[in-house]
Amino acid sequence: MPTALIAEDEATLRSQLIEQLGQLWPELDVAGEAADGVQALRLLDELKPDVLFLDIQMPGATGMEVARQASGRCHVVFVTAYDEYAVAAFEQGAIDYVLKPISAARLFTTVQRLKSRIAAPPAHLEPLLNHIGAAAPGSKLRWINASVGQSLRLITVEEIVYFQADNKYTRVVTGDGEALIRKPLKELMEELDAQQFWQIHRSTLVNAAAIAGVTRDFRGRMLVKLKKRDETLLVSDTYTHLFRQM
After folding, report:
1. Would you call 104 exposed, middle or buried from its count of C-beta atoms within 10 A (0-12, 13-18, 19+)?
2. Most exposed: 46, 90, 138, 222, by fewest CB within 10 Å?
């Protein structure tokens, strides 16, 4: 019975992947789950899985570091929201990739490929990883998969006016609407281009290109005016220095 390790920091996505694999490949034993890179490295050594489903962007040790350790030891499937990584992985001969949000049809194709190659020696990934590192050493998030009601919407970062923390969710606000994601602002800040998205409050990141100007209210508090939205955004004192030249 082949074994698998799932290394993905988003718990919901991890559960979804395990559920879909159970339906598509019931003989596969998911022997372990890792929520970060450090845990993934430990379980890779401990479990010695046949297949590793690996999120290339994880906290702790990065997915790239985990992939280097997995090279030649198990079959690797990249799980990613970053299209450039996925295409590179596929073209360079890694077993396969699945894009977030995970499509059952795409995962079915991946499972069929894995079944056909599971008995063969795992691919050595060094050329692929070197290619990714050279081509995109500072790759940043390019789009967001966000919930709008019961639907999932793909939103490019250029469309986003601002992000705002909202209880367990983060609001993703565009010029014509808004959506929700379960990723906290702290993680978003690590994935977004800091030159493009400015933190102006502990709960708000704003797209610098979407700023029309700044003003002050009757209390003297600084407010950001937006090009495509009517509301204004409060700037906390910690971040007023960003607007000194405006």
Report:
1. exposed
2. 138
pLDDT tens, 84-108?
Answer: 666 666 666 556 888 888 889 989 9
CA distance linking residue 156 with residue 80, whole number of Å: 15
pLDDT in tens, 148-168: 877 777 788 889 999 999 888
Angle (CA) 165-168-171 rounded to 5° is 40
Report the Cα–Cα distance between both ends of the chain, in Å, rounded.
64
Q: Rounded distance, CA 244 to CA 40, Å?
A: 45
Residues 6+ positions from 151 with CB-CB distance below 8 Å: none
**Residue from 25, 27, 51 nearest 118 by CA:** 51
Domains and CATH numbers, the chain: 3-135 (3.40.50.2300), 143-243 (2.40.50.1020)
Check: pTM over 0.85? Answer yes or no.
Answer: no
How large is the average pLDDT for residues 30-37?
A: 93
Tell me the C-alpha distance between 7 and 35, whole Å.
6
CA distance linking residue 209 with residue 227, whole number of Å? 9
